[in-house]
Write a structure and sequence with these properties.
The protein is mainly beta. It contains three helices and 15 strands. It is globular, with a radius of gyration of 16 Å.
């Protein structure tokens, strides 16, 4: 696979059945280290208990949901906290880069090498059939793992996401691909990930607050 992180302009990732754009360094208005620390200190972090194949367990990371609508996944319902000035600023920058509008954001805090996220697709009904999700990474670089639901080629794709990178997933990406963050055997520092989404009003599980 070619070097997908060369340069600072947006690059389209050459993956089948996907529409992925990657900015190696997004202009977020503040230094990445400063934003990381602000988000760690300001966010109302929780460790959610989710149900997978009928069994409950604590997520191996902390998370928080902000925005205009509630959101449900994996048997849990997230009621939104109001936008903070920091999140509003980041959202404005993300919308300017992607030329899209977002009304909610899910934050995940990977505290160290023991935290991760299982393989999944963001395909909940309230996101619509072809959702656009803009993912900002801050802090420790972690590999974003991608696997096609049907194709054997190209197999497992590992995409390193450095601090300040912006990955836009849109089109049929969620339909055909699963993604996740593996736990690590080596020691690593904290990472905060923000995934900006647009909840569609009027879907069966959507409730305005």
């Amino acid at each position: 696979m070619p070097d997908l992180l060369a340069g600072s302009a947006a690059q389209r990732l050459p993956l089948p059945d996907a529409d992925l754009l990657l900015w190696q360094q997004a202009d977020l208005g503040l230094a990445y280290d400063r934003l990381l620390q602000q988000l760690i200190e300001e966010t109302d972090w929780r460790q959610e208990r989710i149900t997978v194949y009928g069994k409950p367990y604590l997520q191996p990371r902390l998370s928080s949901w902000y925005g205009d609508f509630a959101y449900s996944y994996s048997g849990i319902r997230l009621e939104p906290s109001p936008w903070t000035p920091t999140l509003q600023q980041i959202r404005k920058r993300v919308e300017a880069l992607t030329r899209l509008r977002f009304n909610s954001v899910l934050l995940n805090y990977y505290r160290d090498e023991h935290d991760g996220m299982g393989m999944h697709s963001d395909d909940e009904p309230e996101l619509g059939p072809r959702p656009a999700i803009a993912s900002i990474s801050l802090g420790e670089e972690r590999d974003f793992i991608l696997r096609h639901r049907q194709r054997k080629h190209p197999g497992t794709v590992k995409l390193p996401l450095p601090s300040g990178s912006l990955l836009l997933m849109q089109g049929d990406t969620q339909r055909y691909w699963r993604h996740g963050i593996n736990k690590l055997r080596r020691r690593c520092g904290p990472r905060v990930n923000l995934t900006f989404r647009r909840i569609i009003a009027g879907t069966p599980r959507e409730v305005r607050v």
